[in-house]
Design goal:
Elements (H helix, E strand, L loop, with lengths): L8 H21 L4 H20 L3 H15 L11 H24 L2 H28 L9 H17 L1
């Protein structure tokens, strides 16, 4: 847990934001450095997990929007040949999908549709990355079931949107 022994939520959030800013600046200085972009995504992933852990799903949804703004509208992660980076982005998209599902559970009927669509969108991105990794033979044995698991989450989104 990012809170450590102190339980300082505000401090943890400030540290995540500082890390995001640092990687944003590094990436701006060297946009071709795939490791900076991957580390930036890792910080978003852990920040998203932290927010889910402390039940701040609304803020998590805002961070998702910010991540897409920071990375641009490109739906494919940088470094398509870097399996570690690909896995990081797939995990990030899966976590963001789970956060949107949590938001849908709390939202009004009209807002739920948007949350379910957003969840499906990021789950689809994760699925495509995992499927691509599987096809290339770069998906680890530990992640072998990930494409099916994410496909199951997409099916749940489809079912929710069908109602």
């Amino acid at each position: 847990m990012a809170l450590g022994k102190t339980g300082d939520r505000a401090g943890a959030v400030a540290n995540f934001r500082k890390a995001l800013q640092i990687f944003a600046e590094l990436t701006a200085k060297d946009p071709t450095n795939a490791d900076f972009r991957r580390q930036w995504a890792v910080v978003y992933l852990y920040f998203s997990r932290f927010q889910a852990e402390i039940k701040e799903t609304e803020r998590c949804g805002r961070e998702r929007a910010r991540m897409h703004q920071d990375r641009g509208t490109d739906s494919s992660p940088t470094a398509p040949t870097n399996a570690s980076a690909q896995n990081t982005f797939a995990q990030l998209y899966t976590q963001l999908g789970a956060s949107r599902v949590a938001l849908a559970a709390k939202a009004s009927a009209t807002k739920q549709i948007g949350d379910w669509r957003a969840a499906k969108d990021v789950y689809q991105k994760a699925f495509e990355i995992y499927r691509d990794m599987k096809n290339k033979g770069t998906l680890s044995g530990a992640d072998a079931k990930k494409p099916d698991e994410v496909a199951g989450e997409i099916a749940k989104c489809d079912a929710a949107l069908a109602h």
